[in-house]
Known about the structure:
Elements: E1 8-12, H1 14-24, H2 37-46, E2 48-49, E3 52-53, E4 60-62, H3 65-72, E5 79-84, E6 87-99, H4 102-110, H5 120-125, E7 127-138, H6 146-157, E8 162-167, H7 174-184, E9 189-196, H8 205-219, E10 225-231, H9 241-251, E11 256-259, E12 268-271, E13 274-277, E14 288-291, E15 295-298, E16 303-306, E17 317-319, H10 322-330, H11 342-352, H12 360-367, H13 379-390
Parallel strand pairs: 1-5, 8-9, 8-11, 9-10, 11-14
Antiparallel strand pairs: 2-3, 4-7, 5-6, 6-7, 12-13, 15-16, 15-17
Amino acid sequence: xxxxxxxxxxxxxxxxxxxxxxxxxxxxxxxxxxxxxxxxxxxxxxxxxxxxxxxxxxxxxxxxxxxxxxxxxxxxxxxxxxxxxxxxxxxxxxxxxxxxxxxxxxxxxxxxxxxxxxxxxxxxxxxxxxxxxxxxxxxxxxxxxxxxxxxxxxxxxxxxxxxxxxxxxxxxxxxxxxxxxxxxxxxxxxxxxxxxxxxxxxxxxxxxxxxxxxxxxxxxxxxxxxxxxxxxxxxxxxxxxxxxxxxxxxxxxxxxxxxxxxxxxxxxxxxxxxxxxxxxxxxxxxxxxxxxxxxxxxxxxxxxxxxxxxxxxxxxxxxxxxxxxxxxxxxxxxxxxxxxxxxxxxxxxxxxxxxxxxxxxxxxxxxxxxxxxxxxxxxxxxxxxxxxxxxxxxxx
Length: 396
């Protein structure tokens, strides 16, 4: 029976709120509720829930002294209000409160508790030592309409196969384009889950989405690609990321998942005297997972090629390292078009450095060929015209 006293409160952050919404949207099935202690132990032992893969317990363990005080005295059947950004987010009927070891939790997610590992320390800070299970109800109905959007896109073209591709596109470079095109060759509808991290330390989601939309709208066939934001919560971190990607993609209506060869979660592990990948641990999800080739530019082949088919070796190959390409952009340098499409560079630079030039019109008329007509010029257009000059080779 629910307590009649005024509800006590738990405070959660954005990552926890997103995870709770994912669960209520049915996107983490086979998980259907917060796990209790017995269910958590079972998942840790088997990696399964209801005969299907799930890499670690789905639990709520908010940090902080106030949360610890509430949970340590919580009674079975008590109703607790969950607050997010100081506003009621959900109500939870307590079923069970149990202790966890935050260090063990970190290892379950990342495979290590080494604080030098990206994400370990930030995740550790947001974990408490008490977990709570029970049924919860969101105060406001989830506004996630992406499942409906994907279904409508499938119906529009009569798609028999829908493939998911999870990427950061930070920034969108030529190898990303090749991967997208190659995936489209073998599917009817492609759903790109564009990662939306909680800390915008690199390109913002809005800039990356704008660049991706530009490529899709101008260089791909219509109605065959849908872009869906995917909050890059801590539960998607570590070597279990591919399992979570497969689960979410399946629940969104995809029957295939393509992952890049350099995917962070694709590392090999040794099991029963044979080499296997994390993909071999996906059980009962009923989604085909394909590992795409790694693409490079070969100066002998003079084109973008798969490392599996190019015979010329690394001394002839240019790899597409997003962090290095991003460094050029953040310094305000136009990357060569061999690395990133000039239109994409123009989109990104015009957003990263708004109003960069003291006198844009003077630059246009001083260093670019013009038709003598009075026109309104933009920074994006200037970058495009500047790239044409970079590509002029008649004097070399």
